[in-house]
């Protein structure tokens, strides 16, 4: 069928298989162009179908010839109805990996559940033996707790005071004032339960228990800090508490892996347009201004450039992994550069509906947003019949 983007609120309800495929191919080409990385050879990526997780899977496979197992939660296609983009991304990834002679299998289901952990363990046992890198890159609004049965919902709210600031509707370009009422204690607990480190630790415990972690195994999860502008609603808000918990969990996991000489890291990544970040108020305006400045300075990166740098210049240098004073890997260094942040803060004060398309990179934001769903990708013929039933080789 012919597929067009269909918007509902902050999300696009359709996705384009050929556009998603092209995005994946572009990322693979980028990784190949950067040369080989002396990295892990057997890799599990949890949250492998979009954003930073997909970039990690691609970097491991095409940078280090790694066998990869990807876990994700995506919607399969149905006759006349498109799949979610992560489905098509994973279909394209597997097809390319298999063509290149690389092992790649995928598991589609709720990574928070005991069942999906068990299914993954069985697959690793059967096919890979032991693994040496686990990337934890889940972004989810909900988690059904596997022990208590409680359904936790994460929220993006400030703690203590109402937060009032500007935001932009990136579709209409309208800049407006928003205010977000502070959370209650339950909101904090729920957000930590969903986006904190408990599930990450559960995964690593389960893998260790099953003797599936190779000596020296590494695990990495992704975090965000960001500027003072977004602090009240991000790093000092409910999601920030979850990230604090995730970062603290890295030390606990490292302790639990001492006998294997294993190590857990948190990598602090750059702000990027993903399905998760478009829904956070204030962030789209910040990202539009940030993109403008970083592109001007020639230091803009997307997920794939970020993760390539994480592997090549942080995780696999054959030396110590460089970390900040809190033990975190920083690949948000370019975003957080003082000159970049000063320029963004100046633009922030000036931003109004009349000038935002000019002083900010609204066009780049929109393009990245549509690209997430496989639309507006160069080289794709959107007038041609699309194969919406495109399957994932290891699943279909
Ligand atoms: P994303 O939405 O692109 O990817 C989320 C992944 O999690 C997808 O593969 C999805 O299928 C999977 N997933 C969600 N719920 C699941 C479930 N229940 N079971 C199995 N899989 C599930 O998100 P992203 O932006 O790549 O975020 C990944 C991590 O990076 C998050 O921890 C996020 O906070 C962090 N991060 C994001 C940014 C940013 O600007 N986007 C910046 C820094 C750090
Ligand atoms: Na991801």
UniProtKB/TrEMBL annotation:
Residues 81-316 form the Trans-2-enoyl-CoA reductase catalytic domain. It comes from Flavobacterium erciyesense. The record marks 74 as: Plays an important role in discriminating NADH against NADPH. This is Enoyl-[acyl-carrier-protein] reductase [NADH]. The gene is fabV. Residues 2-78 form the Trans-2-enoyl-CoA reductase-like NAD(P)H binding domain. Residues 323-385 form the Enoyl reductase FAD binding domain. NAD(+) binds at residues 47-52, 73-74, 110-111, 138-139, 243, 272-274. Its EC number is 1.3.1.9. Keywords: Fatty acid biosynthesis, Fatty acid metabolism, Lipid biosynthesis, Lipid metabolism, NAD, Oxidoreductase. Substrate binds at residue 224. Involved in the final reduction of the elongation cycle of fatty acid synthesis (FAS II). Catalyzes the reduction of a carbon-carbon double bond in an enoyl moiety that is covalently linked to an acyl carrier protein (ACP). Monomer. Belongs to the TER reductase family. It is an enzyme of class 1 (oxidoreductase). InterPro entries: Eno_Rdtase_FAD-bd_dom, Enoyl-CoA_Rdtase_cat_dom, FabV-like_NADH_b, Trans-2-enoyl-CoA_reductase. It catalyses: a 2,3-saturated acyl-CoA + NAD(+) = a (2E)-enoyl-CoA + NADH + H(+); a 2,3-saturated acyl-[ACP] + NAD(+) = a (2E)-enoyl-[ACP] + NADH + H(+). Pathway: Lipid metabolism; fatty acid biosynthesis. The active site is at residue 234.
């Amino acid at each position: 069928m012919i597929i067009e983007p269909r918007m509902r609120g902050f999300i696009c309800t359709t996705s384009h298989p050929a556009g998603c495929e092209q995005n994946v191919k572009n990322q693979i080409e980028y990784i190949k162009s950067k040369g080989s990385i002396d990295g892990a050879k057997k890799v599990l990526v949890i949250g492998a179908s979009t954003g930073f997780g997909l970039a990690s899977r691609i970097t491991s496979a095409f940078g280090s010839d790694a066998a990869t197992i990807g876990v994700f939660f995506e919607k399969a296609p149905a006759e006349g109805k498109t799949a979610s983009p992560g489905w098509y991304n994973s279909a394209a990834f597997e097809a390319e990996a298999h063509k290149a002679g690389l092992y790649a299998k995928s598991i589609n289901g709720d990574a928070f559940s005991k069942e999906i952990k068990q299914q993954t363990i069985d697959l690793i046992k059967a096919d890979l033996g032991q693994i040496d890198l686990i990337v934890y890159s889940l972004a989810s609004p909900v988690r059904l707790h596997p022990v208590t049965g409680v359904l936790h919902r994460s929220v993006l709210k400030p703690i203590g005071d109402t937060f009032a600031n500007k935001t932009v509707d990136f579709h209409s370009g309208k800049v407006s004032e928003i205010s977000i009422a502070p959370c209650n204690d339950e909101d904090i607990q729920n957000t930590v339960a969903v986006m904190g480190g408990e599930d990450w630790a559960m995964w690593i415990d389960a893998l260790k228990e099953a003797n599936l972690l190779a000596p020296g195994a590494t695990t990495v999860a992704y975090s965000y800090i960001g500027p003072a502008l977004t602090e009240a609603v991000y790093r000092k808000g409910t999601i920030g508490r979850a990230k604090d918990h995730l970062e603290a969990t890295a030390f606990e996991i490292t302790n639990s892996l001492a006998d294997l000489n294993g190590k857990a890291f948190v990598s602090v990544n750059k702000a990027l347009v993903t399905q998760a970040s478009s829904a956070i108020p204030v962030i789209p305006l910040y990202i539009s201004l940030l993109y403008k400045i970083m592109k001007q300075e020639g230091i803009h990166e997307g997920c794939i450039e970020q993760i390539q740098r994480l592997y090549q210049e942080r995780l696999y240098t054959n030396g110590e992994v460089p970390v900040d004073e809190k033990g975190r890997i920083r690949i948000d260094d370019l975003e957080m550069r003082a000159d970049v942040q000063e320029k963004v803060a100046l633009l922030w004060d000036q931003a109004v509906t009349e000038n935002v398309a000019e002083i900010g990179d609204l066009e780049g934001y929109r393009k990245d947003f549509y690209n997430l769903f496989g639309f507006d990708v160069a080289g794709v013929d959107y007038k041609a019949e699309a194969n919406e039933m495109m399957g994932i080789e290891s699943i279909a």
